[in-house]
Amino acid sequence: MRAVGSAALLAAVVGCAGAGSSGPQVAATHVDMQAYASQVVEHTNRARGAEGLEDLEVSGCAADVARQRAAALVGQEELTHAAMDEVFAACGPVQLAAENLSRAASDPSDVVGAWMASYGHRANIVDVDLQRVGVGCVPDGERVLCAQVFLGAET
Length: 155
Hints:
Layout lengths: L1 E3 L4 E3 L21 H18 L6 E2 L1 H14 L11 H7 L4 E9 L3 H9 L2 H7 L4 E11 L2 E10 L3
Parallel strand pairs: 3-5
Antiparallel strand pairs: 1-2, 1-4, 4-6, 5-6
Helix pairs in contact: 1-4
InterPro entries: CAP_dom, CAP_sf
Organism: Cellulomonas bogoriensis 69B4 = DSM 16987
Keywords: Signal
């Protein structure tokens, strides 16, 4: 999901309920969620680098909101994007915000690979107007549920 300005004009992005796996499977009960989230950021920046783009700066505020958003989705059958109002309220003022979601039993590189294979998720990752990122991951059964929150420039 992506929202522009504090009025939160929303444009839906297709959800990513799971990631295809070419790498090792992970069991959420054995995963350090903070390390997993950091690896998602690392692989996201590698994907941006492969496109000739600068790394995203890590935002503590975006990571906090991402953890809250991920926790709110635990146990839900479908991953659904929430309005970005709470992102604007917590991390604003910003011109733009976006979100990617994933629930997977695969490693962080596979999660980012699945996002890069999805038009809407890829668009968020390679958007030059999005400059900061925070990732929050939580266990959801045997899978890892992650929210990736992007922030644009401050207004």
